[in-house]
Amino acid sequence: MQSAALPRAFSRQVLESCPDSCFAVSESLDITYCNNAWDRFAEQNQGSPEFFAARVVARNLLDFIPEDVRKYHADLFKKARVLGQPVSHDYECSSANVFRLYRMQIYPLETGFVIINSRRVEHAHDRTPMEPDETLYRNSTGMIRMCSNCGRTNRAGDRAAWDWVPDYVEHKPDKTTHGVCSPCLEYYYRSSLDSRSN
Ligand SMILES: [Zn+2]
């Protein structure tokens, strides 16, 4: 009943002129479209061609989301569908020097969804910077694990210890894996912890 009242699509003109990075996904979360601002955002933040629009369209959104919070994201879309209303989620996308908080707004359409990512907060970091010490951060399998939300780095052999290593945020080290650090899990993905303990 609710979906009958939802728009069929966002106008392409609105999305193309939007300064925020926007994209659309099908009902099964396959990426169907990215706007102009998408590649600018990808270049500034990930800097890797693997995140440019040409490479992500037709792939599933959940493939880009770490396993720890994949269900959390899938549930956000389910919630937007059930409510028939936009649903939002805040996330961090900082550089080595600047803390940046973004809000992802998920708009359910008659079929599929449009997602708009807008910047809410930006200021200098107040975290204690650590040196990129390979002996401290490279684990026994040769990998460095970083939080996909805030960019903190996990200390080898201690899954609960996460440090702010600006050099690793600026130049992603070789052989990196991604997870979500304990503060981010608690603060940004609380409901995924709740569902885990149920
Ligand atoms: Zn984090």
Bound molecules: zinc ion
Helix content: 25-40%
Strand content: 25-35%
- Biggest pleated sheet: 5 strands, antiparallel
The separation of the N and C termini measures 31 Å
Sheet with the most strands: spatial strand order: 2-1-5-4-3
In the CATH hierarchy, what is the architecture of the largest domain at level 2?
A: 2-Layer Sandwich
Describe the protein.
There is one protein chain. This protein has two domains: 12-124, PAS domain (Beta-Lactamase, 2-Layer Sandwich), CATH 3.30.450; 134-197, no CATH class. The chain starts with 11 loop residues before the first helix and ends with a helix. It has eight helices and nine strands. 23% of the residues are buried. The model has no long low-confidence stretch (mean pLDDT 90). Helix content is 29%, strand content 25%. The strands form three sheets. The chain has a five-stranded antiparallel β-sheet with strand order 2-1-5-4-3. A two-stranded parallel sheet has the order 6-9. It binds zinc ion (ZN). Residues 147, 149-150, 152, 180-181, 183-184 line the site of zinc ion (ZN). Zinc ion binds at residues 147, 149-150, 152, 180-181, 183-184.
What labels would you give this structure?
Beta-Lactamase; globular; 9 strands; 25% strand; 198 residues; alpha+beta; binds zinc ion; single chain; two-stranded parallel sheet
Quickly describe the structure.
The chain is α+β, with helices and mostly antiparallel strands. It has helices at about 10-15, 35-45, 55, 70-85, 135, 165-170, 180-190, 190-195, and strands at about 20-25, 30-35, 85-90, 100-110, 115-125, 145, 155, 160-165, 175-180. The chain has 2 domains: about 10-125, PAS domain (Beta-Lactamase, 2-Layer Sandwich); about 135-195, no CATH class.
